[in-house]
């Protein structure tokens, strides 16, 4: 079974992913994979340098993620170009890892942990889409505190993502992370029991 796990910035997707990993799921972290596919020498690396120039590289020649983010943050066309470079490589790597895991663990559970699951079209490659939600105020507070930035800046980042309202339209399962950490973990544990009992099917 492959679960696509997603949620907007500050919703609490990482907590849900962590708990699923503890319970025995195989976690494929799209952010980690995205960093790997742009390493020097990889195809996406050269495509990014060709499109955005050497100004997005740091002193040792690797992609400077912060510099690149600043370029695409205010330029939707540039962001689309970047996603067109990275998303196919992330999808390919994710598919290969999932296929290899299921070959050895046919009854295993894979969690494709991806903030851009829907935007990248990866929701079509999973058995279920799980969306983590939280109140907007909570999300703003969490991210501004975590990243030591203003609520206004967080709002801008949220506006650049698919809205929570749109995201839940794709959901087979919604996990509400507006309460305590323990309440969210309890929801995940209940869902895991349903998977183990065969009550939550593909």
How would you sum up this structure, described in words?
The protein has 202 residues and is of the alpha/beta class. The protein has two domains: 1-25 and 109-202, Rossmann fold, CATH 3.40.50; 28-107, 3-Layer(aba) Sandwich (Rossmann fold). It contains nine helices and five strands; from the N terminus they run βαβααααββαααβα. 29% of the residues are buried.
Shape: globular
- Number of separate strands: 5
* Approximate helicity band: 40-55%
CATH H-level superfamily of the largest domain: P-loop containing nucleotide triphosphate hydrolases
Number of domains: 2
What is the spatial order of strands in the main beta sheet?
Answer: 2-3-1-4-5
**What is the name of the CATH architecture of the largest domain?**
3-Layer(aba) Sandwich
Radius of gyration: 18 Å
Examine the coordinates and then state which fold CATH places here, giving the name of the CATH topology of the largest domain. Answer: Rossmann fold
Let me know the largest β-sheet: 5 strands, parallel
> SSE string, helix = H, strand = E?
EHEHHHHEEHHHEH
Spans with pLDDT under 50 lasting ≥5 residues? none
Integer average pLDDT? 93
Structural class: alpha/beta
Distance between the termini: 7 Å
- State the name of the first-level CATH class of the largest domain: Alpha Beta
DSSP strand (E) fraction? 5-15%
Q: How many H/I helices?
A: 9
Keywords: ATP-binding, Coenzyme A biosynthesis, Cytoplasm, Kinase, Nucleotide-binding, Transferase
Binding site for ATP: 10-15
Organism: Metallumcola ferriviriculae
EC number: 2.7.1.24
């Amino acid at each position: 079974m492959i679960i696509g796990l997603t949620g907007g910035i500050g919703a609490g997707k990482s907590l849900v992913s962590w708990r699923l990993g503890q319970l025995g799921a195989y976690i494929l972290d799209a952010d980690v994979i995205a960093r790997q596919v742009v390493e020097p020498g990889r195809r996406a690396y050269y495509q990014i340098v060709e499109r955005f120039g050497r100004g997005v590289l740091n002193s040792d020649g690797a992609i400077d993620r912060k510099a690149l983010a600043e370029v695409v943050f205010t330029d939707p066309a540039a962001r689309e170009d970047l996603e067109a470079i990275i998303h196919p490589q992330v999808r390919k790597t994710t598919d290969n890892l999932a296929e290899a895991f299921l070959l050895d663990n046919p009854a295993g559970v894979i969690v494709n942990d991806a903030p851009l699951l829907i935007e990248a079209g990866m929701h079509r490659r999973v058995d279920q889409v799980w969306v983590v939600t939280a109140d907007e105020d909570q999300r703003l507070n969490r991210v501004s505190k975590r990243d030591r930035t203003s609520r206004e800046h967080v709002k801008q980042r949220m506006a650049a993502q698919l809205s929570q309202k749109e995201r839940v339209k794709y959901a087979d399962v919604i996990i509400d992370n507006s309460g305590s950490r323990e309440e969210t973990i309890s929801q995940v544990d209940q869902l895991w029991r349903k998977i183990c009992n065969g009550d939550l099917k593909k």
